[in-house]
């Protein structure tokens, strides 16, 4: 089977594809594209996703479902609270630099346990044990920044955390910053709420 490479969409076109899929999901009329036997065969030799989706590992946040996409469409990276470390940055850079994704989406969501835990830790001075503590500590700067700006509502704190994550991606990754500066990629923050 000969692989057919489709033209890479622009960042805007990739964003519009995601939004169209989300609109179908919200309306309850998903197409379920690229989920059949033919698509499995097409993507078996290689992948050509049109977007990197970096989101929370929350079980309610299934990217391919909420954006009505299928196999090979999205390069998904997930951690609790969408916190970043070298492995996340490397994965996102791979999606953009190697796979050619023109769009990076940072996806936060309502009722995020990591954001809630960071807020609780700041209020009561108690942080969770084990590696959950590391997640909370990585979210805490966003909560502190939101509080410093007078933001105390959960949706305001979440918006700050999403924006902070977008900024961190561009600050910490020269690869991503250069692609964005050249207009070959874009980074956007989105919030999912039921």
The helical percent reads 40-55%
Overall shape: it is: globular
What is the average of the pLDDT values? Answer: 93
Uncertain ranges: none
Which CATH top level class fits? Alpha Beta
Number of helices: 8
What does this structure look like?
The protein has helices spanning 11-27, 37-43, 63-66, 86-98, 113-124, 132-148, 154-172, 174-181, and strands at 51-56, 74-79, 103-109, 186-192. It is an alpha/beta fold and 194 residues long. It has one domain (11-192): Beta-carbonic Anhydrase, Chain A. It has a four-stranded parallel beta sheet with strand order 2-1-3-4. It is globular, with a radius of gyration of 17 Å. It starts with 10 loop residues before the first helix and ends with a strand.
Descriptive key words:
194 residues; alpha/beta; 4 strands; Beta-carbonic Anhydrase, Chain A; single chain; 50% helix; globular
Please render the helix and strand layout as text.
Blueprint: H1 11-27, H2 37-43, E1 51-56, H3 63-66, E2 74-79, H4 86-98, E3 103-109, H5 113-124, H6 132-148, H7 154-172, H8 174-181, E4 186-192
Parallel strand pairs: 1-2, 1-3, 3-4
Helix pairs in contact: 5-6, 6-7, 7-8
Summarize the structure.
This protein has 194 residues and is an alpha/beta fold.
